[in-house]
């Protein structure tokens, strides 16, 4: 077991009480709490002298010394330093947890970070736990805090994982026309996106110091410099070009397509926000329904394309092909990481045209060779056209025009060879049922 001691704002709900409400509501992936205690306040005993002098400073809040004892869990680095295959599993389980917290218990965690997501083993299954509910808040049906308390004077969250809007809010809070941003479910989901990128770049074990610094360049900028600079770097992480060109350790290269899909979900949410009709109601909590658990999970697993017309227009294979030298070619071999069935089908389609295009000239006899225009080279090997292929070609053309049918067959072969990719497809990861305590 692990004991946590901290000075908490007196107006904040006790962590064990929040966890109990969530557990009673049927939320999973919660820590097991064994005991707790509140000891003294900063305004009591000899410490009261500091509050008695010239009154209490309104910029500071009274705090109470609290202790809570958890079951011991393991940090993410212990798991992801050896293998990154469970990063998608972490995201799916945390999406379940955040969704149930919000809609079953009406609670927002508000501090998703690398230190607040941990794991343990349930038999052969890795189960992730969301801990540290110090900044959690109760919300109403619209996802807004039910009351403004003293702790709201200070922005909640851990800076490297804090949502873009919240960082901008911190940077602009002293401006005369500033309107505070309300922390909502979409901000916790965004923090989970940052946690995914952070885990992929910083947690795999890398011996070379120079390479380690290169891999961590992006996420290191999320906590260094002014708030404006940090916000700008966070904004870059929503660009697909950034995801395609960022350096990744070899252990997490296969997750690049998966992270790109995560990025495209937020791109879709941003477009939804920009295209909204100002005179009509808009669900800011889920960005018009684009940042719900089910939509995100479906997009990441590629079971279907739930994002209305935005991501469907993007040719993932062509995008990966364009990113030469960024590791995308290796990443594409694992396109089916999170969806085994669909991944295998797409892999077979890509491996089909492995030979150079040649056609059989029926007018000049068997064995006549043709030029392979797909790569600008000649081939001396004749390719036998099966009766099935010839029948398909003839069906689409005039039967008595043999030369025209020959050109159609050759053109189809060359067209397919363009985006051909070869190589194995990795084993897909499937989500297992979680046994909650």
From TrEMBL:
Residue numbers spanned by region Disordered: 325-385, 418-437
List the Pfam families: Pkinase_fungal (PF17667)
The GO terms describing molecular function are: ATP binding; protein kinase activity
The cross-references to InterPro entries, in alphabetical order and at most eight, read:
Kinase-like_dom_sf (IPR011009), Pkinase_fungal (IPR040976), Prot_kinase_dom (IPR000719)
Give residue spans, biased composition: Polar residues: 326-340
Q: Specify residue ranges for compositional bias: Basic residues.
A: 344-354
- Residue ranges of domain Protein kinase in the record: 1-283
Q: Where is the signal peptide?
A: none
Q: What is this protein called?
A: Protein kinase domain-containing protein
Q: Which organism is it from?
A: Hermanssonia centrifuga
């Amino acid at each position: 077991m692990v004991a946590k001691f901290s000075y908490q704002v007196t107006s904040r709900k006790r962590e064990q009480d929040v966890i109990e409400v969530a557990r009673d509501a049927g939320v999973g992936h919660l820590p097991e709490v064994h005991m707790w205690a509140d000891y003294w306040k900063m305004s009591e005993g000899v410490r009261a002298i500091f509050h008695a002098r010239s009154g209490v400073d309104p910029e500071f809040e009274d705090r109470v010394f609290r202790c809570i004892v958890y079951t011991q869990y393991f940090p993410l680095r212990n798991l992801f330093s050896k293998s990154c295959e469970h990063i998608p599993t972490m995201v799916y389980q945390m999406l379940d947890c955040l969704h149930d917290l919000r809609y079953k218990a009406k609670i927002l965690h508000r501090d998703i970070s690398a230190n607040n997501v941990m794991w343990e083993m349930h038999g052969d299954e890795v189960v992730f736990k969301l801990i540290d509910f110090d900044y959690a808040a109760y919300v109403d049906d619209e996802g807004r805090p039910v009351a403004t308390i003293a702790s709201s004077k200070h922005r909640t969250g851990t800076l490297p994982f804090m949502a873009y809007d919240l960082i901008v809010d911190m940077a602009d809070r002293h401006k005369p026309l500033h309107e505070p941003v309300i922390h909502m479910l979409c901000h916790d989901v965004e923090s989970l996106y940052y946690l995914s990128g952070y885990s992929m770049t910083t947690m795999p074990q890398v011996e070379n110091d120079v390479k380690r610094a290169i891999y961590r360049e992006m996420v290191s900028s999320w906590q260094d410099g002014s708030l404006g600079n940090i916000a700008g770097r966070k904004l870059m992480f929503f660009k697909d070009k950034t995801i395609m060109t960022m350096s990744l350790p070899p252990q997490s290269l296969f997750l690049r397509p998966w992270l790109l899909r995560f990025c495209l979900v937020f791109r879709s949410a941003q477009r939804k926000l920009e295209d909204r009709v100002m005179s009509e109601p808009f669900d800011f909590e889920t960005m018009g329904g684009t940042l719900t658990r089910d939509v995100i999970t479906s997009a990441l697993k590629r079971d279907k394309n739930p994002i209305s017309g935005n991501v469907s227009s993007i040719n993932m294979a062509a995008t990966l092909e364009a990113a030469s030298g960024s590791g995308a070619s290796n990443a594409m071999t694992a396109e089916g990481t999170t969806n085994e069935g669909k991944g295998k089908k797409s892999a077979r389609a890509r491996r089909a045209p492995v030979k150079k295009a040649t056609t059989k000239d029926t007018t000049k006899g068997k064995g006549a060779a043709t030029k392979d225009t797909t790569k600008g080279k000649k081939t001396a090997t004749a390719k036998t056209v099966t009766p099935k292929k010839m029948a398909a070609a003839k069906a689409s053309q005039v039967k008595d025009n043999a030369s025209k049918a020959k050109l159609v067959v050759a053109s189809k072969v060359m067209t397919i060879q363009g985006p051909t990719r070869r190589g194995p497809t990795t084993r897909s990861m499937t989500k297992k049922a979680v046994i909650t305590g």
